[in-house]
Write a structure and sequence with these properties.
Elements (H helix, E strand, L loop, with lengths): L1 E9 L4 E9 L6 E11 L1 H12 L11 E8 L11 E4 L2 E3 L5 H4 L11 E2 L19 E5 L3 E3 L6 H4 L5 H11 L7 E5 L3 H12 L3 E6 L5 H7 L3 E4 L3 H6 L4 E6 L8 H5 L1 E9 L10 H5 L4 E3 L6 H14 L5 E5 L3 H9 L6 E5 L5
Parallel strand pairs: 10-11, 10-13, 11-12, 13-14, 14-15, 16-17
Antiparallel strand pairs: 1-2, 3-4, 3-8, 3-17, 4-5, 5-9, 6-7
């Protein structure tokens, strides 16, 4: 057994406290990663809230991180100590179902093993996340971090980045496409950067004009205020793809009406129940889709694309000792656009 230090959930307070953590000894296909930077995701906040009401088990959040390989298992040939590496929110899958065989481990029929809060497929132990100084993972779910990508700003690509990348790819976004991104947060700002780099004419849909300048800096050519009926009417049946990254419950109808004939609304932000009027789909043969995380080939391709186009997340970097403050601010939506924790203060 190996030992490291990380940030463990305290169910009594709903906060994180520094604690000693155990990691498994390396299996033949494992790599040990010294975690340098870990992004803070809304999922981490939700997991802490759930843990406070149900304190069974242990919880160490963090599922988008970058670092350096420090040791490799006996069967590992594609990583060596000193390699830069990135790890996302999936660390294993069955490997045999149809989804896994087609490189979509994120849709594993047996459900993928998550980076934290999952059950290890070999020993049944609970996976503990990247809010720690070391992580041990199968080399199949570690990704070489391309040269040129900033190690800290690249961390959110492993969750927020691939979450928007997969639908953009699946929906064939490229030159000649018109894309709107609803919501300009952690997911949305990366969707704007990627859609623009893919060659699409890209717009942002937001409730107010407050983010118009930010949207243009990110690459958006258009900006639509969703609370302005005339502006929304002007883009009715307009966009080939609308990427909906709004994290709170909301009415999908206005966004479906902005989709062009045979176009698609990809709903990524809010994962709770929703209601859709069939007529909003029927008129224009519109489609409603969703996506979540990414498979191994897609994640590797996304990292290569981002390196080629200089795409990383816009982040606020904090020492990991400020993790509770980061989570409090995230709950208030007080971040542009992603917090990343510097884990070096755990040494």
């Amino acid at each position: 057994m190996r030992f490291t230090t990380g940030w463990l959930a305290d169910s009594a307070t709903g906060t994180l406290r520094r604690a000693a953590l155990e990691r498994r000894d390396l299996r033949p296909d494992d790599i040990a990663v010294r975690v340098e930077y870990c992004g803070v995701c809304h999922t981490d906040l939700h997991a802490l809230q759930a843990h406070k009401s149900d304190a069974s088990g242990v919880l160490v959040p963090g599922h988008e991180f970058t670092g350096v390989v420090t040791e490799v298992g006996s069967a590992v040939s594609d990583f060596a100590p000193g390699d830069r590496v990135a790890v996302g929110n999936i660390v294993d899958s069955c490997g045999t179902c149809r989804a896994c065989r087609t490189g979509q481990e994120n849709f594993c029929h047996e459900f993928p093993t998550l980076t934290y809060g999952g059950a290890d497929r070999q020993d049944g132990s609970t996976t503990l996340g990247g809010y720690s100084r070391e992580y041990v993972v199968s080399n199949r779910f570690g990704y070489h971090l391309p040269a040129g990508l900033d190690t800290a700003a690249a961390a959110p690509l492993l969750c927020a980045g691939v979450t928007v990348w997969e639908p953009l790819q699946a929906l064939g976004v490229g030159p000649g496409s018109t894309v709107a991104v609803a919501g300009l947060g952690g997911l949305g700002h990366l969707a704007v950067k990627m859609a623009t780099a893919l060659g699409a004419t890209t717009s942002v849909i937001s409730r107010t004009l407050d983010k118009a300048d930010e949207a243009r800096v990110l690459g958006a050519q258009g900006f639509v205020v969703s609370t302005d009926a005339r502006q929304m009417e002007a883009v009715r049946d307009h966009f080939d793809v609308v990427i909906d990254t709004i994290p709170a419950p909301h009415d999908l109808a206005p966004y479906l009406r902005a989709v062009a004939m045979d176009g698609t609304l990809s709903h990524l932000g809010h994962l709770g129940p929703l209601t859709v009027e069939t007529m909003d789909l029927l008129i224009g043969r519109k489609k409603l889709s969703s996506a979540g995380s990414g498979g191994r080939p897609s994640t590797a391709a996304m990292l290569r694309f981002c390196a080629e186009h200089g795409i990383t997340a816009d982040i606020e970097l904090l020492p990991s000792s400020q993790v509770n403050r980061a989570l409090e601010r995230l709950e208030r939506n007080d971040v542009r656009y992603r917090f990343v924790l510097d884990m070096s203060d755990l040494d």
